Each structure stands twice: as structure tokens, then as C-alpha cells.
Amino acid sequence: MTFSNEVESFIKDYVKKLHEGTASVFAGAGLSIPAGFVNWPDLLRDIAHELGLDIDIETDLVSIAQYHVNENGTRDRLSQKIVDEFVEDTEETENHRILARLPITSIWTTNYDSIIEDTFIKEGKVPDINHSAKQFLTSRTKRDLVLYKMHGDALHSSDAILTKEQYEKYHQTHEPFINALTGELTTRTFLFLGFSFTDPNLDYVLSRLNIRFSEDKKQHYCITKKPTLGDKANPDQATLDYNLRKQALIINDLKRYGIKTLLISDFSEITDILGEVEKRFKKRTVFISGSAEVYSPYERQEAINFIHQLSKQLVESDLRVVNGFGWGVGSSVINGALEAIYSKPMKYSESQLVLRPFPQFQTGDKELKQLWEDYRQKMISLCGISIFIFGNKKQNDEIVEANGVIREFEISHELGNICIPIAATESAAKSIYERIMPQLDEYYPKPELAKKYLNILADEKINLLDKVSKLIEFINKLSK
């Protein structure tokens, strides 16, 4: 898919921030509505009707909630509506699933529902949830992300921020949220999704950041849909022209806070953009698949040195290496990556080496074969590129092709990974090469480019170590 220059620039910057560990998300109601949750007008529709007000005309919805409390002397019905509307078993959207697969360690939201944390848990990640000021005093061990629910949680609806009075006192009652968000807005890059920028709490933080840091603001991004003639909010040309003008003013005003707006024509484009972010991030993560009982047609030391240098230079190219510790291959992958990391610990990180040794014994109800299949699926899903080397094993005193490496190739292709066999290493790697070559357009977005490099990697006349630089060159061209 072709993106505008502004969206393309965002994707490159945000992928870079993901690799650096400084990317965050701020999720508004627009992220949850497609999953089946209500927006604020629908949440307060019955409340407004009882007050004799038309929710489709009113814009100050916080005041409507306050009017209800003023008239009834209690917020019991408001609390119950939050439970009724936001505590339900719903299916997450593809946008939620993509975010959960990305290495995002900090998410902020004004939503009451639990769909964000539920999706991350499904992805096998541990969320540390803060929905009250007291929770800042403790933190969950082994957490993968911190989720800040700055307006509360549906399961604790009586404490949820909803009325005008609560918004007015927020800086006193929820000061830890204000301080934490202020800090993250100055150190991390945020992507605002499903947000209208009419929330008084966010406005409070942004306005003070603008005063404090003036010209030295962090760059943030938001994705916003352009008004379209004929939709619910734009029934005629005059209304459309008015809303386009208002949107342009809001976009320009957001620049004061360092927030750049990316305009889209349809909400489905958000999924396309997030999908491209995930795709490009994964292209900087390489899975090395291989096993070797023998290293034919090479001498053992030559082959081991090749694997060592391959892993080392992948790390030195700012790539992340994932390996399942294959027989005869895993140790060299580890040694090569660690040599790069420890030689320049200020430049390279241990996070660039991800090891997933296969379980050797059955656990629970799953057969070992099924455990290995699940393990392969999970491990390969972390990556965007799969490299295949050697791929043989001993079976009944004979050297045979490693079916596990072939299966890892099949999974890689199913998951959309770019598969790169180094056919000169023979065995499974050569079989994969012979399977790919007749149908290159099925495996590569640039078949001619792939043909050139795959043939270089298959040529036994080219020194094995010389293939490493060519492989890195190929990967870099694929990542552009």
C-alpha cells in the first residue's frame, strides 16, 4: 500500500522509537467503539433525556453528567451505566491485536473498558494496570507494559471520572497521573488513537507542557479522519465546509503541543498504518533456523565461523536475532551475537538476542510434538525475516534432512515472513531454495532483487564468509 509522505515519515519514526523502547500509545474512545462499546453521547443519552436536553445538540457532555448529579443528589445511575455498557465480553479489533504484538511498554487511555489489557493478556503479555492514584505505590513484577487508565475502570465505576466536579479536582485527586503523563510526554513518542482532544485533563497537561518547554517539545502524532460529505456529521456541503475549516484550526492548534496530525479518508486506514508499522518493525527482527549434525560441503570450523559472523554482523546492523538453539547451530549464533553486544555495550543491547530453546519433555496435557509446533509458531511470529542454514540431523545412523527446519520455513511463509535460504549450506536450506525459486513472486515483493541475492547465497564458488555481507545487504534492501 502507498502512503502519503507524512504517514510514511511517521511510520519510519515510530518504528525507530519502537526499537529504542520509547514508543507509547494514548487510546481514546474511538479505539473501543468499533469493538462494540458506546461513545459518550450514547452513554449519556438517557441521562440527557431525563434532564430535558437533546444529546445530539449538546457538546459539553461533562456538564450533563454533573447536572444529573446535581438534580438527583447521587451518581448511582451514572456508575451503573458504566458497568452496564463497559463490562461485557467483546471481541477485540485488529487494531488492538496489532498494538498488543508490538513492544509497547506504556499505554494511556481515558476508556473505562478492559479490552486493551484483555488483548495484551491474550498475546501472553503481563499488564500492570493503574486506574487509581494509590496503585502508583506498587508495581507488578515481570510486567510487559504499564496501562494508565486515567479516568478509572468500569469494575470500579463509583470512582470513575465522569462529572464536571471530578474534572475540576482531577489535578488534586489524581496528581500522580498528571505527573507521570507529563514525564512521558517529554521522554516518549506518543501515537494518539481514537482521540478527539476535547478531554479537559489532557488539555490541562498539554497546556502546561507547552508553557514549560516552549520550543523544545517532543514530537507526537495523532491519526484523524477527514470529514466526508454524506456521513452523519456532514449531511450537506455547507456543514462539510464548516467542519473542514474547524478541523484545520484544531490541527494547527495541536502543533503548539508538538502533535502532528495524520489525516485519513477512512477508519480502515488506521489498521493499514498500524499493520505497516508492525511489518517494518518485524523486518528488523531475524529468525535463524537451522540444525547441523554435519556441515557438508564445508569443514566444521569454517561453518561454525560463518554462523558466528552471521549472528555478529546481524547485531552490528542493529537487527534483533531470534534463535531456537538448533543442534550444531545455536551455540555459534549465541557466541556471535554476544561478541557484538559485549564489545560495544553502549551501542548494542542484550535485547537484540532472543533465545527460545525447545522444551525437551512433555508438560501438561500437550504432546511434545504439539509443544514444539506451538513453540515454533510463537517464536517465528516475533520476526519478519527468516534465514535458513544447513538443516540436517542424524536418524537411524543416517544423515537426513531436518523436517523441523522445513516446518519452520512453512510457518514463516504462512506468517508472511520473508524467507532467505542460504542454499550453499545444502540440506533443508537447499530444498527451501529449490521450492522458492520457481515462484519468487509468491515469496518476495521484489522478485528480481530476490533472485539476484538468492543465487549469490546458493553459489558454492563464493566464499562462505563473503556471503554474510551480501546477506546483510539483501536484508537492508528488503527493509526499505
From TrEMBL:
Reactions this protein catalyses: NAD(+) + H2O = ADP-D-ribose + nicotinamide + H(+)
InterPro entries, A to Z: DHS-like_NAD/FAD-binding_dom (IPR029035), Ssirtuin_cat_dom (IPR026590), ThsA_STALD (IPR041486)
Keyword entries, A-Z: Antiviral defense, Hydrolase, NAD
GO molecular function per UniProt: NAD+ nucleosidase activity
One annotated GO biological process: defense response to virus
Ranges annotated as spanning the membrane: none
NAD as UniProt keyword: yes
Domain Deacetylase sirtuin-type positions: 1-284
PROSITE patterns, A to Z: SIRTUIN
Family to which this protein belongs: Belongs to the soluble Thoeris ThsA family.
Identification of the protein by name: NAD(+) hydrolase ThsA
